[in-house]
Every structure is written in C-alpha cells, then in structure tokens.
Design goal:
Layout lengths: L1 H4 L11 H5 L13 H14 L2 H12 L9 H24 L6 H7 L4 H7 L4 H4 L4 H13 L7 H18 L7 H12 L1 H25 L6 H25 L3 H12 L5
Helix pairs in contact: 3-5, 3-11, 4-5, 5-6, 9-10, 9-12, 10-13, 10-14, 11-12, 12-13, 13-14
Length: 265
Amino acid sequence: MSMFSYGTRSRHARCNPRSVTTSARTGSRYSSRSRNASITMTTSRYIGSNFRVTLTSWSLQYHGRMTEPTGLRERKKQRTRRALIETAYRLFAQKGYDRTTTAEIAAAAEVSNATFFNHFATKEDLVLTEDGEHILRTGLEVIAERHSGDTALDVLRRAMLRMLAEAEAGLRDPAGELETIRLDLITSVPALRATMLQRAFDAQQQLTAALRQTHTDELDDIDAAALVGGVTGAVLAAGQAALRTGQPLGTAMRRAIDIATGQPK
C-alpha cells in the first residue's frame, strides 16, 4: 500500500457503486450488487467509448518511470507493454480479476506467455505500481546520508517524507478515474492486498536494517524495529482510512508521519 506499493493519488471521489458507476459524461447510472461489480461496469464503459485513449495514457503514467524511448527496440517493447496493460484491464472488466489468467491476457494481446513474463513477473504487477524499488532506494539513501546531530527519528521522518514525495512525483494524473479503479482493485482483491502488504513489510525490514546500521550509538535491534514499524504502520493505517473515507491519500500519509514522529499538528 501507499508509497511502498501503489502510489499516492488524492482520491476525491470515493469508489463506491454510486460515485463510480454514475458518469456525468454518459448520463448513465448503474445499480451494483457489489464493489467489484461497480469496478467492472465503470471499466466496461470506458471500453465502449474512449477506453483505448484513456488507458494508453494511463499505462504510460503509472507503469514505470521510463523516458521517451529513442530506439526501435525500446519503442516496440513499450508498445507491447501498453498492449498487455490495455488487454488485461479489458479482460478484468469482462471476466473479473480473479478469473483472468496471464495466459488469457497474453493470447488476447497476441503475444506469447513468455513475452508477458518478460514485462511482468506476475499478474499483480499489472496493477501494483512498479516504482516501489525506486521509492525504497530513495529512503535508504536518505538514511545513509545521516547529518551531524540527527536523531534516528529525525532521519526516519526525512526518509519517509522523501519517499512520499517520490511516490507523488511518479503519479502524473491524480484525477484519473482508472487510478481510482486500480486502488479499488488493490483494496478489494485479496491477492493484490496480500502482495501489497508483503511489499510494505519487506520495505519496512530494509528501512529498519539501514537505520540500525547508521545509528548503532542510539538504537539496538528492538529499538530500530519498533521505531520503523511504528511510523510505517501509521502511514499504512492512515492510507487505508483515506481510501475508505475518500480523503486525499498523500495528505493523510503526511499527517500520519507527523503524528508518529511527534510533530505538532
């Protein structure tokens, strides 16, 4: 979740059957029996109208921090990647996330299964942001650059704020409806939620080890684990609350960092 795994858009419209499936552009309203049904119908609506334009734009924005490709080979790779992403979302809309296989995505995109795995390690990687490693590396670099007189809490706060800023910098279309759908998938599909939490836990362990190494005079293993766990746990919890209530995600996470590090409100 959050800067560890899914980005940080400000989610002004909560994704529920009424707000997601009612479209001002189409004037249509659908009734929905479930959260997943609302996702499917909204995405299907895009498929029926301007889905290709919108989704192509989204795939460039949310799937990797790549510069404009200059070589023919790179352009071909990005076209294949975009086709896989577009195809996957079309199939998710038609069949549901859980019932769609990677083989079906590859076949519908007219590529081999091996080609799919050249671009994505798992189906989950189509939905979860791929900037997690970059964002984590930023946090680790901040910790390694400990300034004279900094406490462990000072450094951790600075690292978390820089990670959040990196996550927001990678999100170029905060008003995109497809990002709303993506966040709903992450919070409603158990496999995606589990992967998100595992990535967050892995990142937490690496941050703990880095902080322990740079502050041996201040922290032992328990101190470092408790400090990092407290701050990252606060960020994750605030992010989940923001998604449930439709509040801006980045703002909620900054509030959580402030609260967890003892900053005045």
